[in-house]
Amino acid sequence: MPRKLLNMSSNSSISLSSKESVKANTSTVTNTGRIANILRKKRSKEYMSALNKLDIGDGRLKQTEIDQIINTIKGEFPEVNLNGILKGYISKCYLGGTYEVHTLTFVLEILTHYHTGEVLPDDMERARSLAKKGMYEYIEVYSDCCRAVSESGDVSVINI
User: Fold this and answer.
1) Are the C-beta atoms of 102 and 91 separated by less than 8 Å?
2) Exposed / middle / buried, residue 89 (Cβ in 10 Å: 0-12, 13-18, 19+)
3) Mean pLDDT of the chain
4) H helix intervals, 8-157
């Protein structure tokens, strides 16, 4: 059963923040390219650490820890509104047995740990084979592509 860890509002807009949109004053194509370039940047150690904390132990975090994680994730891309384009995160599951991967939605809701053969929700299934290999810390699943993030925070854009 899904367990909501963090409550972040979502809508389906895809844009730069209002400050950046006014400053940019360019076409949608240019903004889309700019967003893609921003999302290709290396992830910070703080961002990597925040995402790793979400799958520690039984997942029970204090509200202050949850607030820090939210702020770190929002602070990684302050100029981009990820609502509607970032579907969530998927990574290899190390629980053992038949467990293969686990997922986390963009609103930071742990869905579950998935056994071999269980179907993943939404667009997460397309990143499963890459995640279960364990070559990357996690895969960010977006509406148009996946971004595989290595332990060092380097990002590879993958169209799967």
Assistant:
1) yes
2) buried
3) 77
4) 18-24, 28-39, 45-53, 63-76, 128-132
Q: How far is CA 143 from CA 23, 66, 84, 124, 150, in A?
A: 26, 26, 8, 10, 20
Strand partners, 16: 80
- pLDDT greater at residue 74 or residue 5: 74
The length of the chain, given as a count of residues: 160
Query: What span, in angstroms and rounded, lies between the C-alpha atoms of 105 and 122?
Result: 10
Say how far apart CA 75 and CA 131 lie, in whole Å: 25
Per-residue model confidence (pLDDT) at position 27: 39
CA 116 from chain centre, in angstroms, equals 22
CB atoms within 10 A of CB 6: 18
pTM of the predicted structure, to 2 decimals:
0.74
Angstrom distance (rounded) from CA 125 to CA 118: 10
Contact 87, 106 (CB under 8 A): yes
The tokens of 62 are what? Answer: 């204090």
